[in-house]
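Field reference: sequence -> structure
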Amino acid sequence: MGTKGREMVGEHADRIIELLNKAYADEWLAYYQYWIGAKVVEGPMKDAVMAELLEHAADELRHADLLTTRIIQLGGTPVLSPKEWYSFTNCGYDPPEDPYIVPVVDQNIKGEQCAITTYHKMMQETRDIDPITYNLALQIVSDEVEHEEDLQSLKEDFKKILK
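Structure field:
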């Protein structure tokens, strides 16, 4: 923990660590949702969907790493047990019980929309008190917006093929 870095956010450090840990839990669950979805997905355009899901999974894992670094910088501890992710998550987890391409992509669009909302709120809350976390949230939300757009584009392609 950097003393001056934590001092910069002052009394808000514990709240910011809480926000970061909730997002951290979301990212791990999103990583797994994308990864397992890529493994089980079925249907036309399966290969394109798999590739997109695996790319997004890698991004979610990178986000978890960024969040962990910031949590530690502020003197916090990242959620240490995967069992605890469910008590911290903002966005939850939707298992791909129906592996057909449409519901798998829909589940992930829903997850991205939740992530966009989560990081937007984090940006609003940290804008004037923690520019580092604000910029981190801005960086991640821009990835999440791109993910939503990628998935919605796939869905548009499905409509053309599945007519």
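Note: The chain has one domain: 3-161.
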